Amino acid sequence: MDGCARVDGRTPWRTDTRGGGWVRAGCKDQCLGRLGAPNQTPTRTVPKTLASGHSAMSAQVWTPVLLDNPLMCPLGAMLMAIRLRGMDPEETALLTQALARSGQKLEWPEAWHPHLVDKHSTGGVGDKVSLVLAPALAACGCKVPMISGRGLGHTGGTLDKLESIPGFNVVQSPEQMKLLLEQVGCCIVGQSEKLVPADGVLYAARDVTATVDSLPLVTASILSKKVVEGLSALIVDVKFGEAALFPDQEQARELARTLVGVGASLGLRVAAALTAMDSPLGRSVGHSLEVEEALLCLDGAGPPDLRELVTGLGGALLWLSGQAEAQARGAARVAAALDDGSARGRFQQMLAAQGVEPALARALCSGSPARRRQLLPGARDQEELRAPADGTVERIRALPLALVLHELGAGRSRAGEPLRLGVGAELLVAVGQRLRRGTPWLRVHRDGAALSGSQRRALQGALVLSDRAPFAAPSPLAELILPPGPAPEAAQEHHVHVAAGSGFQDLAPALAAQTPGSS
Ligand code: IUR
Fold it and tell me: Residues 104-120: pLDDT tens digits?
């Protein structure tokens, strides 16, 4: 084992010239024999195993092995082989099951079953939907046992955002989760030693081996957590666009189809929404700032694109699980829970039940935006950027914004690295708005020195202006891919037709209509 580092992101990976796989720098041969037959280097064995169609079987073997021994260098080779060669749906389903079985399956009372729903995202800039949607669904009578990810993107994930709230604890045992669902209706927790531990190992290893954007690995990672939750319905928000994991909409659609299909083969009712990720979602990016914006949405206010995504995804879930007779009806119920304060009430209860001082949870949920800002970790300084010319805001490019915020400490470069929770940016203008030269359009919250010249240039490049007349920003919702099989019961009762198979549906018109998915 000499010289072989843990999969913790500290040691750089290099290509293993003997086998074409990836090993830790300094890794000696002694640690390479663990996956394959004795004296065979797995950097040779693993791709061969994959090529001969036994990857899923081997996945069932190596999943428990990697848990006992996350020191293994061949893990990187396996991941890279999967990324390069892919996996068929059957293999992906077996890998998903193997990951799910690495921990406990959650058990719920039978009566909860129709109400058990969840949402997951492939990750986007400014994506705080889960923070709002989980309590909103709880307020609509759902049970939401959300096992979330830390985020492999530039600015952290849902759990990181929640951890900017002092005291919030993302590690909950299955027993605590049950109590939370009984008392509050929702919880947001992380993968842990008891919950899908193998996904935790793979997640960290993918982050440092350039294997995040592998379709079967994303599918298995997301679905393994959801299989464990024992859901009635799941919706996955699959992002496409410049700042998405799969920028190309066709590729994102392929991921969406795989999630729906593999989910169905595992008995999980999965729908996938394709949503645009060219501009950030909402007006805030960065941990504390996103919690503030989630609270605004829970006040029944906040940016329209965020509210639209929350109500759209929530409406689809209520409909898919048979709790609403149409997507539009479900969306209206989620909107009502935001407007009448019941969703915010559930959020407050969830915070208090997950470790936040009850007085702080109350102050955050009932306080003014200014008071909330005082209660959450802030950055030391703020710096504004001004519009370089007159024009209409065509787009605010999420990618350069996220890359600069990453540099300022809002994202991790290595698994386990601490984040600067107050670092982020507020968009002071909206897409479609007319701007005058010199108007402030971006406020950056930073801890360190002033923005460098190149950072300012990159940020100014994110503002795309045109000569067009002002326009209404388009909806981020592009398509909804439905699971195969019959319509949900409530929908059938109301003669709502669902296309057979996992055909594509256009979610935006479907939300407006009474008969979603009809064709
Ligand atoms: N969320 C997950 O849980 N896993 C992934 O691989 C991605 C998002 I990308």
Answer: 999 999 999 999 999 99
